[in-house]
TrEMBL record:
<keyword id="KW-1133">Transmembrane helix</keyword>
<feature type="transmembrane region" description="Helical">
    <location>
        <begin position="238"/>
        <end position="257"/>
    </location>
</feature>
<dbReference type="InterPro" id="IPR000292">
    <property type="entry name" value="For/NO2_transpt"/>
</dbReference>
<feature type="transmembrane region" description="Helical">
    <location>
        <begin position="196"/>
        <end position="218"/>
    </location>
</feature>
<dbReference type="InterPro" id="IPR023271">
    <property type="entry name" value="Aquaporin-like"/>
</dbReference>
<feature type="transmembrane region" description="Helical">
    <location>
        <begin position="57"/>
        <end position="84"/>
    </location>
</feature>
<feature type="transmembrane region" description="Helical">
    <location>
        <begin position="105"/>
        <end position="131"/>
    </location>
</feature>
<dbReference type="Pfam" id="PF01226">
    <property type="entry name" value="Form_Nir_trans"/>
</dbReference>
<protein>
    <submittedName>
        <fullName>Formate/nitrite transporter family protein</fullName>
    </submittedName>
</protein>
<feature type="transmembrane region" description="Helical">
    <location>
        <begin position="33"/>
        <end position="51"/>
    </location>
</feature>
<comment type="similarity">
    <text>Belongs to the FNT transporter (TC 1.A.16) family.</text>
</comment>
<keyword id="KW-0812">Transmembrane</keyword>
<keyword id="KW-0472">Membrane</keyword>
<feature type="transmembrane region" description="Helical">
    <location>
        <begin position="151"/>
        <end position="175"/>
    </location>
</feature>
């Protein structure tokens, strides 16, 4: 499968982060818009499968098709740039600053949100036959998802905030592992296989992904969900973004950088060179 060893893909991660920070505003917005739109469509696809088959595992097995498509097309998700861009600063790449990283994050957020919202409107039209009928079964299900993961968290108070934050941390642990996994192979089939596994884990376990939620919750509001934009932003999107940032930067970017890019000297063997510890 043309496997790339960790020390080599660690370098690729930093190269990717540098490239994304230096990317033009136009390209950043287009690529992030399309990433949000495609991932949103994959979410609609998965919910439709779950409703029509009654089997969430089947939906989870097929959801990663959207992630694979957007990655292979070179599009950008906020969860991915959360992990990759800071590494270019930490590695002290020339001309890469935190200001540039924050600029990239802001542009990618806007692009992802616009793309996901576009798909949300399109799918709401489909689910309601142009808003002329009540939502179909899939639309009704999306409305319920939004309620449970906004006002449902709010009802639990501080425990709800802790839960949504931890779910977001674990989400980008898996999603960014998928981003990095695609760098482990130089073949398309190898990239797809490597990406598929962590994305399947995140979706089946119901972790919180900020871009997927940019589709699910606006859709839920349009389809009659009993929650507001304020509920969505306060009790889900904002804490999820923070959790996604923490999860991707620490469990994936930070860990791989620390051990595969900044590898410590090996311990010596007793009797050879300096004594072993």
């Amino acid at each position: 499968m043309s496997y790339v060893i960790p020390s080599e893909f660690a370098e690729k991660m930093i190269d990717a982060g540098e490239s994304k920070v230096l990317m033009s505003t136009k390209d950043t917005l287009i690529r992030s818009y399309m990433a949000g739109a495609i991932l949103a469509l994959a979410a609609a696809f998965a919910v439709t499968i779950a409703v029509n088959t009654g089997n969430f595992l089947v939906a989870s097995l097929l959801f990663p098709v959207g992630f694979c498509m957007l990655y292979l097309l070179g599009f950008d998700l906020l969860t991915g740039v959360f992990t990759l861009c800071p590494l270019a600063v930490i590695a002290k790449r020339p001309g890469i600053t935190w200001k540039g990283v924050f600029r990239n994050w802001g542009l990618v957020f806007c692009g992802n949100f616009a793309g996901a919202l576009t798909t949300a409107v399109f799918m709401a039209v489909i689910f309601t036959t142009g808003f002329s009928h009540e939502p179909n079964a899939v639309g009704q299900r999306i409305g319920v998802i939004g309620e449970a993961r906004t006002v449902g968290y709010a009802a639990a108070g501080a425990s709800g905030f802790l839960t949504v934050f931890i779910r977001a941390v674990m989400c980008n642990w898996m999603v960014s592992t998928g981003v990095v996994a695609a760098m482990m192979s130089t073949s398309v089939s190898g990239k797809i296989m490597a990406m598929w596994m962590p994305i399947l884990v995140f979706f089946y376990l119901g972790f919180e992904h900020s871009i997927v939620n940019m589709f699910l919750f606006p859709s839920g509001i349009m389809l009659g969900g009993e929650f507001t934009w304020g509920d969505y932003l306060l009790y889900n999107e904002f804490p999820v973004i923070v959790g996604n940032l923490v999860g991707g930067l620490t469990f994936v970017g930070g860990m791989i950088y620390s051990t595969h890019y900044k590898t410590s000297p090996k311990r010596s063997v007793a009797g050879v060179g300096t004594p072993a510890e």
